[in-house]
Amino acid sequence: MNLAIVGATGVVGREVIKCLELRNFPITNLYLAASAKSVGKIIKTIWGEIKVREISSKLFEQSDIAFFTAGSEISKLFAPLAKINNCLVIDNSSLFRYDPLVPLVIPEINGAEAFNHSGLIANPNCTTAIAALPLWVLEKNFGIKKIIMSTYQAVSGAGQAGLDELEQQVIEYANHQELVVSKFSHQILFNVIPHIDSFQSNGYTKEEMKVVWETQKIFKRPDLAISCTAVRLPIKRAHSESVVVQTKSKVSPEKFKKLLSQSVGVELVDDVALGQYPTPMTAMNKFSVEIGRIRQSLIFGEYGLEFFISGDQLLRGAALNAVEIAELFIN
Ligand SMILES: NC(=O)c1ccc[n+]([C@@H]2O[C@H](COP(=O)([O-])OP(=O)(O)OC[C@H]3O[C@@H](n4cnc5c(N)ncnc54)[C@H](OP(=O)(O)O)[C@@H]3O)[C@@H](O)[C@H]2O)c1
């Protein structure tokens, strides 16, 4: 296949390259594009050294599939150009996710929907994608009534600039300098910030509402009661989430653990006696989401569970999901 990555120099774009390499994706040509500042840069891949180019009609003419990892503005400008050049877009931005005509796909859950595309497939938000894998096990086997989620999100969720700001503040702190704040609304070093993306009229942030809208769409459960509080922490990579679930039928930690052990995309890390539970440090660079601290809910009793997950949002939550969608089209 001929593939293009639009936004290849960003944190998600670089992860897509890594993922294609790790999964031995059958590639004839790989084209990498980014902003004018990166044009001409050389990126080393297992398919050779590739020069970063600008986004153009020719890029899409030459490609069967383009991964868009450059934000909503670029998707808005260039996804139509890819479409008229018969290049399938797998979009990582939030721009098309809520369009009823665009499939929003997590291959482990609703992979078949990818084939209903009309030139464009949306990749979910990374926070949604990580939680959806274990939640789907509960939905399929017990039915879900309600979900209450709180997140602990890494700075790389805000792109390279977010990562740079945390690293810069560490250096400034060590040098007794004033900390410069630009990407986040407050100092992120030694802090937690309950504000990711813009505030909506209902008091939730857009990041929180993405979890609601997207889980309902992917699970085909517009009635699903779900609420989220999304919080940024000074962690470099991998998001964590504390999840409380009320189920329709009786559930137990033992039954859930057994089902998880037979599921793809999740790894049970749950032995508190040995100090084993999910953490961003251990979840980093893994294809699976770590899940642990599974317990019967004190609030919902036999009809509820609480658990903690950590997943690499750049890899599992974004790049791997996008590459898995592309893999559906290999044949
Ligand atoms: N970070 C995450 O955890 C995450 C997870 C899921 C989805 N996403 C989504 O993925 C997308 C990329 O996010 P990111 O975190 O990877 O951001 P990032 O690190 O800031 O990377 C942005 C990429 O877009 C390119 N770009 C920016 N302006 C451009 C322009 N005018 N023309 C062409 N290319 C341009 C950049 O190129 P230069 O390097 O040349 O500037 C870079 O390659 C966003 O839609 C984001 O919402 C991010």
Automatic annotation (TrEMBL):
Pfam families given in the database record: Semialdhyde_dh, Semialdhyde_dhC
Record-annotated membrane-spanning stretches: none
Q: EC number(s) per UniProt?
A: 1.2.1.11
EC class (word): oxidoreductase
Molecular function (GO) terms for this protein are: aspartate-semialdehyde dehydrogenase activity; NAD binding; NADP binding; protein dimerization activity
Query: Do the record's keywords include NADP?
Result: yes
What is the superkingdom listed in this entry's lineage?
Answer: Bacteria
Name a single GO biological process: isoleucine biosynthetic process
InterPro entries reported for this sequence? Asp_semialdehyde_DH_beta, NAD(P)-bd_dom_sf, Semialdehyde_DH_NAD-bd, Semialdhyde_DH_dimer_dom
Q: Which residues carry out catalysis?
A: C126 (acyl-thioester intermediate), H239 (proton acceptor)
Reaction catalysed? L-aspartate 4-semialdehyde + phosphate + NADP(+) = 4-phospho-L-aspartate + NADPH + H(+)
Going by the UniProt record, its keywords in alphabetical order are: Amino-acid biosynthesis, Diaminopimelate biosynthesis, Lysine biosynthesis, Methionine biosynthesis, NADP, Oxidoreductase, Threonine biosynthesis
Q: Which SUPFAM superfamilies match?
A: Glyceraldehyde-3-phosphate dehydrogenase-like, C-terminal domain (SSF55347), NAD(P)-binding Rossmann-fold domains (SSF51735)
List, for all copies, the residue spans of the domain called Semialdehyde dehydrogenase NAD-binding.
Answer: 2-117
Entry similarity comment = Belongs to the aspartate-semialdehyde dehydrogenase family.
Q: How does it assemble?
A: Homodimer.
Q: What's the name of the protein?
A: Aspartate-semialdehyde dehydrogenase
The record lists the organism as Candidatus Magasanikbacteria bacterium RIFOXYD2_FULL_41_14
Q: What is the lineage of its organism?
A: Bacteria, Candidatus Magasanikiibacteriota
